[in-house]
Amino acid sequence: MPSLNSSLNMGQRALSMNQRAMHTSGHNIANQQTEGFSRQQVTTQSASADPLGLGRGAEAQPTTRVFDHFVQKKILQENPRTGVFHTREDYLNKIEMLLNELEGNGLNQAMNDYWNAWSQLSSQPESDAARAQLREVGDVLAR
Prior knowledge:
Subcellular location: Bacterial flagellum; Secreted
Largest sheet: 2 strands, antiparallel
GO molecular function, one term: structural molecule activity
Helix content: 55-70%
InterPro entries: FlgK, FlgK_helical
Protein name: Flagellar hook-associated protein FlgK helical domain-containing protein
Number of domains: 2
Keywords: Bacterial flagellum, Secreted
């Protein structure tokens, strides 16, 4: 027959274990939006019996981090690749800015002006104005 003291100790262990589990749950809830946070879990197991063979309740094991090893490995493998893609994005943004096709005064427009100037010069080969126009649009295209 368990004594009053052993019953109180069992109750105290149960309250302590559940308090720890509640604290861990609160910690998980508070950090759910934190990038890189892994959920934590408190596991329990039966406490060893006393010398008379009577149970002493349950006790908490150390808090463990819950995560998927496969997913973690994949993240670590793919992380360096994100740098490659960010660099590629930066260069493509610079190229897009240079070509500037959205505003209508990009490379396509400059080439059209250049070939139109050649066409104008071919129809009026003696015209100094057509030659000056070709030189000017050629400079714009070269920049």
